[in-house]
Design a protein that fits this description.
- This protein is mostly helical.
- The protein is built from 21 helices and nine strands.
- The protein has a three-stranded antiparallel sheet. Strands 1-2 form a two-stranded parallel ribbon. A two-stranded antiparallel sheet has the order 3-5.
- The chain is elongated.
């Protein structure tokens, strides 16, 4: 089943009206959520609902928990306490019966409180909404064991744009714990939220939106607080920023070639084919498309035979970054539709494997119908963290080339134009003679973000939690790398478009269609340097220009 986009109420369709219905646009099925669809869902005003199949899996997953307790099976986080306290009994027997039900709620509420110890600043609202949508979708996958009341509570917050205050610092390094617990605290009316742009007690907001206090029951408590959903949201935010920066890169490289009087040779199909590495054809064709109609396709006796590597190998570094981005996106897409909680609930487990009937496995089975409750470490994000670091390192190479292209483009021996891109009318001027000095510190900052952080941590819960992946920290470094990337790109763009326009004005050369589009948009915010001036506003305006640029508006498509 593909994720569907609806413009009508499920009530109008007469589908599962026993459950709350929303005039929703996005349906969560539990099996086809992606980074890109989630990014759209997380915008303010976007609403979600759960597919009929998703509701069925929620019910079956919850029923598995009930049946396990009825059968006397110890369920981590339900029958027994967490971590090194797992030998302490919480309830015995059917968890739905009193006094077990009340004891379960009281236990869950207490766990919400004692896990909360994060640090400001608060997480951005969009990331909070994203993390709640991820959890709701994973409920619909049928592997969390959570109640339909939990699903409805999450849906209320998502569809009313209620954002619990979630700290952005203070990660355990292997499991989010103290971050998502603030969602549970808000739902049980013990924590503040952002609503209509204001910080308010959740109890007051519940009255406004007509929502009852939520009481976490059964496996709800551990499933709300013990997962990696906040980290996943942070990864997605960083990934989307990096993706935007990379989408602009072919246009910026092409503008540099127009400014340099560079060679198209390294980007031609038969040049790329001789190496054969992934993504290089796609990147190279994107760069060449931007140069459609450029003077670079004509023979020019002032053109060097070979350009500096920062130009000549741009396609290879961009291809490496694009591949790293794809790899990260693939694993995140998978993660969104699976569980990062412990224990794991299987409602369609296999019992036909060679070990299925062995005593240790049968002990975990609720029955002989493929239902299991297994102790797992699904919040281990090592693979995702390593993919994030791979993308961060690839981005560092992209920024290295960017900074060096900027240095090369002011060299008159390279360009055969005036040194430092001094325009003809800027008589006695120096133009970009000292601008590169501002990039040096940015460059050092970017390179420093490539250090590994995945293996560090402090063992907790009396040494039960003794390995780490720090996926949130890796994502934060990727975000920082991208932010520095916009800044370095801003300096490069300012240089390239100055040089490209000089080619056009002073030499009568025709620029590539993509370069011309980029130049036309850029000149609305940063003017041509016809005389020396203060560049601080120009640089900051360039950063904002890049952050807000839709790469599609400057892209050239070649039939």
């Amino acid at each position: 089943m593909k994720l569907r986009t609806l413009k009508m109420s499920f009530l109008a369709l007469g589908v599962l009206v026993a459950f709350p219905t929303w005039d929703a646009t996005h349906v969560l099925t539990g099996n086809d959520l992606t980074v890109d669809t989630l990014w759209e869902m997380s915008k303010p005003g976007e609403k979600v609902t759960i597919s009929p199949e998703g509701w069925d899996r929620i019910n079956k997953s919850y029923q598995a928990i009930l049946d396990a307790t009825k059968n006397g099976i110890s369920v981590y986080g339900v029958s027994v306490n967490f971590g090194d306290l797992k030998h302490q009994k919480v309830v015995t027997g059917d968890v739905e019966k009193e006094p077990n039900r009340s004891a379960s709620i009281k236990f869950n509420e207490r766990q919400m409180r004692i896990q909360a110890a994060g640090l400001k600043p608060w997480l951005d609202n969009r990331l909070v909404k994203m993390s709640m949508i991820i959890r709701l979708n994973q409920m619909a996958s049928g592997i969390t064991g959570m109640t339909k009341e939990a699903a409805n509570a999450y849906m209320n917050y998502i569809n009313n744009d209620v954002y619990p205050l979630i700290p952005s610092r203070g990660s355990q390094g292997v499991n989010d714990l103290n971050w998502p617990t603030h969602i549970g605290l808000a739902l049980q009316e013990e924590w503040d939220v952002i609503y209509n742009g204001q910080r308010m007690p959740s109890k007051e907001v519940h009255k406004i939106i007509g929502m009852k206090k939520y009481e976490p029951f059964g496996l709800d408590g551990i499933a709300i607080l013990s997962n990696g959903n906040v980290s996943e949201a942070i990864v997605i935010d960083s990934l989307k920023r990096a993706e935007h920066l990379l989408k602009m890169s072919p246009a910026i490289v092409a503008a540099g070639l127009d400014a340099l009087n560079g060679n198209v040779s390294p980007f031609l199909w038969h040049s790329i084919e001789t190496k054969g590495w992934p993504k290089a054809h796609e990147v190279s064709e994107s760069i060449l498309a931007q140069l459609k109609g450029s003077y670079l396709w004509d023979v020019n006796d002032k053109r060097e035979l070979q350009d500096p590597l920062s130009f000549r190998s741009a396609q290879w570094t961009l291809a490496a970054a694009e591949r790293a981005l794809d790899n990260l996106k693939d694993i995140v897409n998978t993660s969104l539709n699976h569980s990062s909680t412990n224990p794991a609930i299987a409602i369609n487990g296999r019992n036909d494997l060679w070990y299925s009937q062995l005593p240790a496995v049968k002990l975990l089975a609720i029955d002989d119908k493929g239902r299991y409750i297994n102790s797992v470490a699904n919040f281990d994000y090592t693979q995702m963290a390593l993919e994030v670091e791979a993308l961060t390192k690839a981005m560092a190479h992209v920024l290295h080339n960017s900074a060096w292209r900027m240095v090369q483009i002011v060299d008159d021996k390279r360009t055969k134009m005036k040194k430092y891109l001094v325009a003809k009318e800027n008589v006695g001027g120096d133009c970009f003679a000292n601008v590169a000095q501002a990039v040096s510190g940015l460059y050092a900052e970017a390179m420093g973000l490539t250090n590994n952080v995945t293996i560090y941590g402090l063992p907790t819960s009396i040494y039960i939690d003794d390995t780490f992946n720090n996926v949130a920290q890796t994502a934060d470094r990727l975000r920082q790398m991208t932010n520095v990337g916009y800044e370095i790109f801003a300096f490069e763009l300012m240089h390239h478009l100055q040089g490209a326009e000089m080619r056009q004005k002073e030499q009568g050369y025709k620029l590539g269609e993509g370069t011309q589009k980029l130049l036309n948009q850029y000149r609305k915010v940063v003017p041509f340097v016809s005389e020396d001036r203060i560049f601080t506003d120009d640089v900051n305006n360039s950063v904002e220009f890049l952050k807000n640029l839709d790469p599609g508006t400057v892209a050239v498509k070649v039939e």
